[in-house]
Amino acid sequence: MKRRQASSFYPHFDSEEKSTVDKMVGFFNQVIFQHEAILTDFLDPGQRDILKTVVGSDLFVQEFGGYPAAEKQRVYISEEWKNLQLQDYQVTACTISYPNKFVQLTHSSILGTLANSGVETDTFGDIITDGRGEWQFFIKTELLDFFTEQIDRIGRTHVRIDLVAPQKIVMPEDDGASVTIIVASLRLDAVLAAISKNSRRQIKAALATDFVKLNWHRVQDSNIIVKVMDVLSLRHFGRCQVQDITTTKKGKYKVVLKLWQTKKHK
Length: 266
Known about the structure:
There is one protein chain. By secondary structure, this protein is α+β, with helices and mostly antiparallel strands. It has 3 domains: 6-83, Ribosomal Protein S8, Chain: A, domain 1, CATH 3.30.1370; 90-168, RRM (RNA recognition motif) domain (Alpha-Beta Plaits); 177-264, RNA-binding S4 domain (Structural Genomics Hypothetical 15.5 Kd Protein In mrcA-pckA Intergenic Region, Chain A), CATH 3.10.290. It is 23% helix and 30% strand. It contains 6 helices and 15 strands. A 6-stranded antiparallel sheet has the order 10-15-14-13-11-12. Strand 13 and strand 14 (238-247) form a beta hairpin. Helix 1 packs across helix 2 (45-55).
């Protein structure tokens, strides 16, 4: 196998993702030249997509984020296939103990605390809730002592971070809602404008400032045509997945989406 050149992958992704491409190419080259497997930090779906594009069929890629369908996952990259056990991914689940009869925590407040605790955001994974006051999050196992010893407050609420056994991991609440819109065009800006109730001008401004992602990748082209299963996200608004597209009698498009709106996150 030959050394990968990051520049050969730049045309496939937005210019803002060059640093991610560089990092993933670095992983590939490290594995093939040092002949040692790599376990990455937590990667989001867009980062994993770039990694898989770089790796192709030349290396084995296995991933796990602590529970089925985790958004952020650690990835094991190797030259030879290994039958991994869950503990090989070194992902640990933590629960947040707090007076939940009197206080409500939010996803954003927990994320803010973790992100400002002195560690990089790729050292922890998803933050999940059962919708009844139980909050859990996933971390690199080696940082368990840091999180349990250093985090004792979220906002104004005193908390304690405890280890969670795998069998006690909650089933995440899905607070997505089904939404149907009628649009004259399936262009990215038209669909986002309709679902967010913003103007096309506002959406184009969001595209220009990297506030929009399509399938986890930053995009700036408003002319992209969306299709079923695409995931669209607009910063400060939320995320939606296109589930169905049909044509109306008047020649417009009926688009059914599942919407996870930022302001509704708990």
